[in-house]
Specification:
Length: about 375
């Protein structure tokens, strides 16, 4: 475990409300947060990209609005989230500023991870933030999420975000150290499960019996997160984060339940592009571009000779060689109308032709699946 986390390229850490907010007083656990920030800074110092998905807005906001412990109606929990989120973001910013790590806040709803165009925008922004060395802090946009578009739990949100940014590791920190064969609080013979290779119906049955005090997600949502993450080539670990320095602890052998996948984020993404999306049109390229593609390069507008179909930026398209044969499938960075205008031109002409500075590539190599 230890080496795997230390060598992760891109790490998503999900922090449950019960870790950040004292259950009795409703106050922020500042020392715990500072210790977590130390762990995050250590990852950044090793050049690992880190993204945090943090709960706690509602728990913090309850206190500021004087809402007590009672069960909240949707609009009251949304109001609490609005009041709490500003404190939550501030707390992360202050804690990580001790290490000069810049923080950025991103609030998402499930729509943003499902609708192509919003997905693409969120992905691009997150990728840019990571490239600039910042630590994005993500939460659900509770104040605008209606029942239909709510994740409701940050376990699945964290897995979707991990898939979106091609993370190779997702750590779910909560108040339970992993998966047990039964609820350990009720059954003393419950056995701890250190590793899950496949999420079978037996594993699901175990999760159904195990709760967590943490926020809205129990073990069931954690398993759903594991499934989403593993499909995207991201391994996941569920661990108890209550004690200070939870990441450093895991790195030095601390226990948790591991869901490992042999797929990589890149291979999973290519499989998804090749297999799950319907092509909305096609782009025909010249012989030089076709050769560049087989060498693993991106497709530039200069190599495009024709565009067919009515597609939007981010849609899947078929890439055809000079003879019309399908060579690849990819996600296009330009709509059909824009692609039509820039085809055959060098990338440094894009801004002059379209009036905005778009991507250099028509299809980036990360978004191309050959064959
Ligand atoms: N988005 C909620 C909050 O910040 C938490 C959701 C969850 O508990 O997973 O309070």
């Amino acid at each position: 475990m230890n080496d795997q986390l230390r060598t992760a390229k891109r790490l998503v850490i999900k922090i449950g409300s019960s870790l950040l907010v004292d259950q009795k007083t409703g106050a922020l656990r500042q020392e715990w947060l500072n210790a977590l920030a130390d762990d995050v800074a250590a990852c950044r110092a090793r050049n690992q990209d880190v993204l945090l998905v943090s709960s706690g807005a509602i728990a913090l906001g309850r206190r500021s609005l004087g809402l007590g412990d009672r069960t909240l109606r949707l609009e009251d929990s949304q109001a609490a989230a609005a009041a709490g989120q500003i404190r939550l973001a501030h707390a992360y910013q202050e804690s990580l500023a001790r290490h000069a790590v810049p923080v950025a806040q991103i609030l998402l709803t499930s729509d943003d991870t499902e609708q192509r165009r919003r997905y693409l925008n969120a992905r691009n922004t997150l990728t840019a933030l990571l490239a600039h060395g910042s630590v994005p802090v993500v939460n659900e946009n509770d104040t605008v999420a209606t029942e239909e578009i709510r994740f409701g739990d940050n376990d699945r949100l964290a897995a979707r975000v991990a898939a979106m940014i091609g993370a190779d590791w997702l750590v779910l920190l909560s108040d339970i150290d992993g998966l047990y064969s039964a609820d350990p609080r009720q059954d003393s013979s419950a056995a701890f499960i250190a590793e899950v290779d496949e999420i079978t119906p037996e594993i699901e049955a175990m999760a159904a019996g195990t709760g967590s005090h943490d926020g809205s997600g129990g073990m069931v949502t954690k398993l759903q997160a594991a499934r989403l993450a593993c499909q995207a080539g991201c391994s996941m670990i569920i661990a108890d984060g209550s004690a200070p320095h939870p990441i450093a602890r895991l790195e030095t052998g601390g226990r948790g339940t591991l869901f490992s996948t042999t797929a990589t984020p890149a291979s999973a993404r290519k499989r998804w592009i090749a297999g799950s999306l319907r092509a909305r049109g096609s782009i025909t390229i010249d012989a030089g571009a076709a050769q560049a593609l087989t060498q693993g390069k991106s497709l530039l507008p200069a190599g495009v000779t024709a565009v067919e179909g009515d597609f939007e930026r981010g849609d899947a398209v078929t890439v055809r060689g000079p003879d019309g044969a399908a060579l690849a499938r990819g996600l296009t960075a330009y709509s059909a109308a824009d692609a039509q205008r820039i085809l055959g031109h060098r990338s440094d002409r894009i801004q002059a032709i379209l009036g905005f500075l778009g991507r250099e590539e028509m299809i980036h190599r990360d978004d191309l699946a050959l064959g």
